[in-house]
Amino acid sequence: MSKRPDAPVLAAVDGTEASLRALDWAADEALMRGRRLRIVYAFDWPLYHRVPAGLPGFSFDELGRGVVEEAARRAAERSAGLDVETAYKVGDAAPILLLEAAEAELAVVGSRGQSRLGAVMLGSTGMELAAAGRCPVVVVPDRAPKPPVQRIVVGLDGSASARAAADWAFSAAAARGAVLRAVIAHRAVAQNILGSPGASVHEAAHAELAAAAAEARRLLSESLAGLREHYPQVEVEESAIPGHPAQVLADTSAGADLLVVGSRGRGGFTGMLLGSVSQSALVHSTVPVAVVHTAPSGTDTR
After folding, report:
1. Residues 282 and 182 in one domain
2. What's the structural domain count of the chain?
3. CA nearest 102: which of 140, 58, 137, 63?
4. Among candidates 9, 2, 4, 69, which has minimal Cα distance to 34?
5. Helices H, strands E: what count in the chain?
6. Which of 193, 226, 230, 262 is most buried, by the most CB atoms less than 10 A from its CB?
7. pTM to 2 decimals?
8. Are residues 11 and 1 part of one domain?
């Protein structure tokens, strides 16, 4: 994330309704943070390489300018007094937006809506930005927003990435006056009970699950260490819940204003830019999802 005090909130647009929903979220966030809103349209489509320059009735400049000007008008109408700047660039969208995100306080992108199978199709550009962006990235689902309920959910697992997510989530909750629910998942089914000496299978299973729950609560407490004191105004709820982490986060965040996750948690394969739980949250969440990366040593994730 950029350390510049004037770093903007970045909104990636492409003229679709999904990107305009994300723009609305970004405009609200920029106004709340006292930041300018930078609207960027990056496009690289087949006709760009085939349409001759000067083709009557067609202009790439007019196309790009039209998309960002419409977005700027919408943002200005939504958030009076917001400082808005625009840019449109021809080229591969992912690297353009990654460069833009390196200079941003926060990047916001929309998802593509529902497929016939019922899963949200995020799109490769949004996934790349969430995975490799140098600042926190918020993915806004393509659905009508609901009135805010002043509740944020953060998924934790004891990893460095989760601790960065917790720090960012506390800051977001403090800015909104929201309740923060910190959630960690643990095993719901015993795994090592066969052949347990001196105890029945039932007793062994109960003991194993109790140990898993206790370890989850320990990791949860560890992830929140120091943050409660730093943000005394934030009301915090702690939940250690049995089940698969992706399902637990989907269930607990339904109806919240925002879900916050780390970019890669415990058990993620070395070299993966985005862990499987974070990917699942981006694909299936019904609320905006913020992906927070582990900050380099000496940087502030807020």
Report:
1. yes
2. 2
3. 137
4. 9
5. 9, 10
6. 262
7. 0.84
8. yes
**Domain span at 160:** 146-302
What's the rounded Cα separation, in Å, for the pair 115 and 250?
18
Contact between residue 221 and residue 184 where contact means Cβ atoms under 8 Å apart? no
Ramachandran angles phi, psi of 293, nearest 5°? -90, 155
Q: Which of 128, 145, 162 is a domain's end point?
A: 145
Cα 219 to Cα 209: distance, rounded to the nearest angstrom? 15
93-136 residue pLDDT tens: 889 999 999 999 999 999 864 433 333 335 678 888 888 888 99
Enclosing H/E stretch for 221: helix 201-224
Residue type, 264: R
Which of 95, 94, 101, 102 is closest to 125 using CA atoms? 94
What pairing do the DSSP bridges indicate for beta strands 289-292 and 137-140?
Answer: antiparallel
List the end-to-end C-alpha distance of the chain, in Å, as a whole number.
Answer: 9
198, 267: one domain: yes
Region of 230 on the Ramachandran plot (φ > 0 left; ψ -120 to 50 alpha; else beta):
alpha
- The residues, ordered by sequence, that sit 6+ positions from 121 with a Cβ below 8 Å of its Cβ are 111, 112, 113, 114, 115
Q: Are 27 and 78 in contact (CB under 8 A)?
A: yes
In whole angstroms, how far apart are CA 118 and each of 113, 248, 250?
9, 19, 14
CA–CA distance, 14 with 25 (Å, rounded to integer): 15
Half-sphere exposure of 82 (CA within 13 A, CB side): 30
Same domain, 3 and 95: yes
Minimum mean pLDDT range among 7-16, 25-34, 88-97, 111-120 = 111-120
